Amino acid sequence: MSAVYVSAGIAHFMMPKAFARAVPPQLPRPVALVYLSGIAEIGLGLGMLFDRTRRPAAYGITALLIAVFPANLYMAVSDPFDEEIPDRLQPIADTGAWLRLPLQLVLIAWAWKYAKPDR
């Protein structure tokens, strides 16, 4: 889990404008939000490496996934990447955007598994 979030966070810094297009237009300063979420993903991903910080990091990842859900919904409904995707690949991109919504629930469940106290 750590590698997934650290890698995703690094990607936010490598392609901030691409990620910013997924930010709903109602939210201010999309690039700044991309950087903030990238920092959060890296920090929380690193927190997953250590027993002492694993549970708080898992709670943070859960909260972050819930917070970015509107961006995933915006991508599915609004097609902000339409111009970059060739017409023949558009159905695949649309399907991927819609499949990302239930995947978000799987990722939340995965993080929540680490947030629960040990039994």
What does this structure look like?
This protein has helices spanning 2-14, 16-20, 30-47, 51-78, 90-115. It is globular and about 50 Å long. The chain contains five helices and no strands. The model has no long low-confidence stretch (mean pLDDT 89). The protein is 76% helix and 0% strand. The longest helix is centred in the middle third of the chain and has 28 residues, at 51-78. The protein has one domain (2-115). Helix 1 (2-14) runs antiparallel to helix 3 and helix 4 (51-78) runs antiparallel to helix 5.
**Average pLDDT, all residues:** 89
Quick one: overall form? globular
| Major sheet characteristics | none
Q: In sequence order, what are the helices and strands, one letter per element?
A: HHHHH
Poorly predicted tracts of residues: none
- SS field, number of helical segments: 5
Total individual domains: 1
Strand content: under 5%
What Rg do the Cα atoms give? 15 Å
Structural class: mainly alpha
**Count of β-strands:** 0
Helix content: over 70%
End-to-end distance: 21 Å
